[in-house]
């Protein structure tokens, strides 16, 4: 062992006739190469190999969300109140103003790639109940107390059908039309040039455009008919400007006739909503 080569000595001790000290060095003594003189860094500890790293929660499989799961819809309701109020303010004041500091006049930039359904849902729900409330007040004032007043709950179902139906189906129709007409021009213009918009952004755009109907409905119960016309007209003008300003960069990517036709359809459908609000609730 003087040659500086290390050995492990294994001694097999046999128990012969009770003598535990008896050893047979010729047969039972074995020599094995030892590594105790090697550098320690060449043989990493087993702890480095046995350390368990749990899979990250942001792995591709865990981050997938499917249409039939609640997590798919929950991501569009994950928004704070400040962001919702900011978006409502941009919808009610679509012009450049010091309150919103809206320099781009584009609501899609305000969304910043994070559209939500929380705001559109509660805005539509608020409009439904305010329309029912103020419509009931308007009918009560028009009755002149000639007989016992009976609540007309058909106003509630009518408001729900009108507001929820308009907010749910018109964005789908617009998005489908844009997808269809952009398909023919995508080869020359490309998706970026045509100004793409996804379905959730369409829902957010139309949902927040309903915000103006909250103050309009609150003041349109006046018995003076001309005032109600003025209030509804102002609500229509503000919301249709908000829609057309933000939709024009999107629809302009299609052919000229198609873009004009789509904008006319948007304005016409929105005018139908305003007329329905006026004559169903504030006639």
Short description:
The protein contains twelve helices and two strands, in the order βαβααααααααααα. Helices cover 60% and strands 4% of the residues.
Question: Tags for this entry?
Answer:
mainly alpha; 60% helix; 283 residues; 12 helices; globular
Walk me through this protein's architecture:
With 283 residues, the protein is mostly helical. The chain contains 12 helices and 2 strands. The protein has a two-stranded antiparallel ribbon. α7 runs parallel beside α9 (199-209). Residues 40-62 and 189-194 have low confidence and may be disordered.
Count of DSSP helices?
Answer: 12
Coarse morphology = globular
The sequence of SSEs as H and E is: EHEHHHHHHHHHHH
What about the largest sheet? 2 strands, antiparallel
Indicate the radius of gyration in whole angstroms.
Answer: 37 Å
- The helicity comes to 55-70%
Strand tally is 2
Mean pLDDT: 77
Question: What layout of secondary structure does this protein have?
Answer:
Layout: E1 7-11, H1 25-28, E2 29-33, H2 47-50, H3 60-63, H4 70-74, H5 81-92, H6 107-111, H7 118-142, H8 154-194, H9 199-209, H10 213-219, H11 225-251, H12 256-281
Antiparallel strand pairs: 1-2
């Amino acid at each position: 062992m003087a040659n500086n080569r290390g050995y492990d000595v294994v001694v097999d001790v046999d128990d012969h006739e009770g003598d535990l000290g008896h050893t047979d060095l010729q047969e039972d003594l074995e020599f094995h190469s030892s590594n105790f003189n090697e550098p320690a860094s060449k043989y990493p500890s087993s702890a480095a190999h046995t350390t368990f790293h749990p899979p990250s929660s942001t792995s591709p499989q865990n981050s997938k969300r499917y249409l039939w799961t609640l997590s798919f819809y929950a991501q569009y309701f994950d928004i704070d109140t400040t962001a919702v109020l900011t978006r409502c303010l941009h919808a009610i004041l679509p012009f450049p103003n010091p309150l919103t500091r809206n320099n781009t006049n584009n609501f899609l930039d305000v969304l910043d790639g994070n559209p939500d359904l929380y705001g559109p849902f509660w805005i539509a729900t608020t409009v439904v109940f305010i329309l029912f409330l103020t419509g009931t007040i308007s009918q009560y004032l028009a009755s002149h107390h000639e007989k016992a007043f009976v609540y007309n709950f058909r106003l509630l179902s009518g408001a729900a059908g009108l507001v929820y139906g308009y907010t749910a189906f018109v964005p789908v129709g617009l998005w489908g039309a844009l997808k269809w007409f952009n398909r023919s021009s995508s080869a020359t213009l490309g998706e970026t040039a045509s100004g793409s918009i996804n379905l959730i952004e369409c829902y957010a755009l139309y949902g927040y455009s309903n915000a103006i109907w909250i103050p309009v409905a609150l003041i349109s119960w006046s018995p003076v008919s001309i005032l109600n016309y003025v209030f509804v007209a102002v609500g229509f003008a503000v919301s249709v400007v908000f829609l057309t300003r933000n939709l024009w960069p999107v629809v302009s990517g299609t052919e000229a006739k198609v873009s004009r036709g789509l904008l006319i359809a948007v304005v016409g459908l929105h005018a139908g909503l305003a007329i329905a609000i006026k004559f169903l609730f504030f006639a």
